[in-house]
Specification:
One of its GO terms (cellular component) is cytoplasm. It is built from 15 helices and 12 strands. The longest helix has 19 residues, at 256-274. The chain has 2 domains: 7-253, 3-Layer(aba) Sandwich (Aspartate Aminotransferase, domain 2), CATH 3.40.640; 256-391, Aspartate Aminotransferase, domain 1 (Alpha-Beta Complex), CATH 3.90.1150.10. It has helices at 7-13, 39-46, 61-74, 85-96, 111-120, 136-142, 165-175, 187-190, 224-237, 243-253, 256-274, 294-300, 315-325, 355-360, 377-391, and strands spanning 78-82, 102-106, 127-131, 147-153, 178-182, 200-204, 218-222, 280-284, 307-312, 330-331, 341-343, 367-371. The protein binds pyridoxal-5'-phosphate. Pyridoxal-5'-phosphate binds at residues 84-86, 110, 153, 157, 182, 184-185, 204, 206-207, 216, 218.
Length: 393
């Protein structure tokens, strides 16, 4: 076609070359390795002189199809898919930094990322300074001569802080830093970090990309030279995505845009409704005018995303009662599912922290996180209403 296709069309139409069966949907390539008819072709494959598949730890047709779609959506040059979101995060650190390097990381990040940067990286001589999302003076003061990378997540999990990507991009350019963004919560359809100069973009494909709570997956896309370094690291250390998971995730990308429309509409409807609920102290959602970074959110995001959080009156006890009273919503640790999910960080994911540590990362006692599903919104709201009422009894 003469016209460049829109990324949404590419996410539906990019497809591995058809086999002789002329199948419409891509078949599953469950094979650990690939054969060669001639020794010379195999030699050339190992010498990177052709792009033949060698071994599924390096590449596989299903995985390549998924990566090509993600590159189209993020408008990124190249990518590599991993077994989980965390292996994507970890590989991006290990491949691009070395002993003696310094990392800047926003203070509110996903729990396992927090553990990697504070517990494991220092063991290998990579130090980290946590910087508060909106404190520009603190960002400037934290830069050292050996600072190599800025890592951030926006919106953050679970506090939904929004970080200014335009400012972060200029900051990285000024200090010559690799700009690495976890874009899991927004997805490329709501926010494209490349537009603000991001060099590396990471996703947990487990969340909105799968969208149905079935498989784990991760993906790293970005600048070709940096992705090549990450590819070499992953090819040798082995966090590859399985062909089956890639097949599931590639098909999921075909419906991501329509799913997100409903997720975001439901999340906004629930957030707006809860603002006037007497059992709720406050509600946080990027596209509510009361969100502290509302202006930044509407500047860099198309919609507010599928997650909202609120503070229930009555603290930890009321939070637990709320979960116990839900009849429709699922109580589970995942998010980004077709089924709406409620969780209570203070008594679960963040229960091992002290009160002071929880306060430092913004986890208040009655914080409830809702991942809005695809159900009829009023059914979800009615369940939340009745559980809120019971939580106060
Ligand atoms: C879930 C999540 C991850 C980790 O992804 P897994 O697929 O569970 O390994 C990383 N970042 C964010 C923001 C997440 O929500």
């Amino acid at each position: 076609m003469s016209q460049e296709l829109h990324p949404i069309t590419k996410a539906i139409r990019i497809q591995t070359a058809k086999t002789g069966q002329n199948e419409h949907s891509t078949p599953l390539y469950l094979t650990s390795s690939f054969t060669f008819d001639e020794a010379e072709t195999m030699r050339a494959a190992f010498a990177d002189e052709n792009d033949k598949n060698i071994y599924s730890r390096f590449s596989n047709p299903n995985v390549d199809e998924f990566v090509a779609k993600m590159c189209a959506l993020e408008e990124a040059e190249d990518g590599f898919a991993t077994s989980t979101g965390m292996s994507a995060v970890f590989s991006s650190f290990m491949a691009l930094m070395k002993n003696g390097d310094h990392l800047l990381c926003c203070s509110s990040v996903f729990g396992s990322t927090y553990t990697i940067v504070n517990k494991y990286l220092p063991r290998y001589g990579i130090t980290c300074t946590l910087i508060p999302a909106g404190d520009k003076a603190a960002w400037e003061a934290a830069v050292q001569p050996n600072t190599k990378m800025l890592y951030l997540e926006t919106p953050t999990n679970p506090q939904l802080e929004v970080i200014d990507l335009e400012y972060a991009g200029l900051f990285c350019k000024k200090h010559n830093l690799i700009f690495n963004v976890d874009n899991c919560f927004a997805t490329p359809l709501l926010q494209q970090p490349v537009k603000y100069g991001a060099d590396i973009i990471i996703h947990s494909a487990t969340k909105w990309i799968d969208g149905q709570g079935r498989v784990l997956g991760g993906v790293i896309v970005g600048r070709k030279d940096l992705i090549h370094e990450i590819y070499l690291f992953c090819r040798n250390t082995g966090p590859a995505m399985s062909p089956f998971n890639a097949w599931v995730l590639s098909k999921s990308l075909e419906t991501l845009d329509v799913r997100l429309e409903r997720h975001c509409a439901n999340a906004l409807k629930i957030a707006e409704d809860l603002q006037s609920n007497k059992s709720v102290t406050w509600v946080k959602y990027p596209f509510l005018k009361t969100h502290p970074q509302y202006e930044i959110a509407v500047k860099q995001m198309k919609r507010g995303g599928g997650v909202l959080c609120f503070e229930i009156k009555g603290g930890v006890e009321a939070g637990r009662k709320f979960l116990d009273s839900l009849e429709l919503l699922s109580v589970t640790a995942n998010l980004g599912d077709s089924r709406s999910i409620a969780s209570h960080p203070a008594s679960t994911t963040h229960s091992k922290l002290t009160d002071a540590e929880r306060a430092a990362v913004g986890i208040t006692p009655g914080l409830i996180r809702i991942s809005a599903g695809l159900e009829y919104a009023d059914d979800v709201l009615n369940d939340i209403h009745q559980a809120l009422e019971k939580s106060q009894a």
